[in-house]
Design goal:
The chain is α+β, with helices and mostly antiparallel strands and 145 residues long. 16% of the residues lie in helices and 43% in strands.
């Protein structure tokens, strides 16, 4: 079955005694444009990176993790309770799933809205809890340096 593509190119408009006439052209879909047109119409292919995805469980909450480079985001369902220990336990599970590292949660220290934790791999992890108005944590963003 031949597929036809109608390209509506307005080449001009003719005003006649009977009204307004439109002149257009029709082209077949399988017709090839000239090489000069084809070369100028090419766009560079965007580089596509597929983020790492994983899931896990912390207590009664499950999380879905998406990691792209040195950052990861975990979304929890149901939300984590408003508790520092629950947050650090969940963040440790997220870092373990996403980066394969263990956190030293005893040395966790708040810096602004983030919590900075050193990992057993010698790298530093910045944890940012994203909270509901009730204080429950629905997501954790992790950045590794």
């Amino acid at each position: 079955m031949m597929a036809f593509l109608v390209r509506f190119l307005v080449l001009g408009a003719v005003v006649g005694a009977g009204g307004f006439w439109l002149i257009s052209s029709w082209e077949r879909a399988d017709s090839q444009p000239s090489p000069a047109t084809n070369a100028s119409a090419r766009r560079p292919e965007p580089s596509l990176t597929i983020p790492f995805r994983a899931s896990g469980r912390v207590g009664s909450s499950e999380f879905a993790l998406t990691k792209d480079g040195e950052q990861a985001v975990a979304v929890f369902s149901p939300f984590l309770p408003r508790d520092d220990r629950a947050f650090l336990t969940a963040a440790s599970a997220v870092v373990s799933s996403g980066f394969g590292a263990t956190l030293h949660v005893d040395g966790a220290r708040p810096v602004g809205a983030e919590v900075v934790v050193d990992g057993a791999d010698g790298r530093r992890y910045y944890l940012f809890p994203i909270k509901q108005d009730t204080g429950e944590i629905h997501s954790i963003r992790v950045r590794r340096e």
